[in-house]
Amino acid sequence: MTNLHPFPGPNVAPAAAPLPLPFDPAMAPMLRSRMLREALPPSLQRLLDQGRVVRRSRFTDDGFTDVAEDWIPPAEVAARDAAMARRALAELEDLVLAPAPPNHLLGRVLALLSHYPAKATTPEVEQLLAMDWADDLGEFPAWAIDQAARLWRRSRKWRPSIAEIRALCEEACAGERALADRLRAIALAGDRTGGLTGPVTGSGRGMAGRPAVAPVLASAVRRLR
Known about the structure:
The chain has nine helices and two strands, in the order ααββααααααα. By secondary structure, it is mainly alpha-helical. The chain has a two-stranded antiparallel sheet. α4 packs parallel to α9.
């Protein structure tokens, strides 16, 4: 898969043959994150090092839930660095975090649930179930869904819930999402300090351009039970 690579400056000719650095989801998460980070231009790597993490407690009506972390970029971000962050973010979301195609998502879910037979349901309910799975997992890349299904098959003896598979998907791509969030923060910081003023690409969870799921539901729902 094509990967992130250093970006030339406005007056610098691009390298003739940038070294490829494939993204391999089979790698350990820390190694994947390190390789993606090292593929960024040095100035972006420095900005990532200069940022700081702020921790805050989160509460609901039931009380304390957990501690959230927010990454704060440096106060000053040059326009050139903001532009490079935008480009890196777009590439990361297009090539690594792009949502899974609906047919792949539903096929993977169908295969996973087939390992755990359940009581038959009506076709109408089957379609609603398929739509729920497609809606609730549709933000994740195919490789994260595949990893979650593989881990569940190898470690669980019962049928999964959507929430359980979502949690595994979130864990699978946590490092890549964190890098995307930090690149987005750098781009926005550049806007505030006089950098580019165009919209920052991506929604933060790869939802932009998500394919419609309706055309592939009919062929999958008949066996989703």
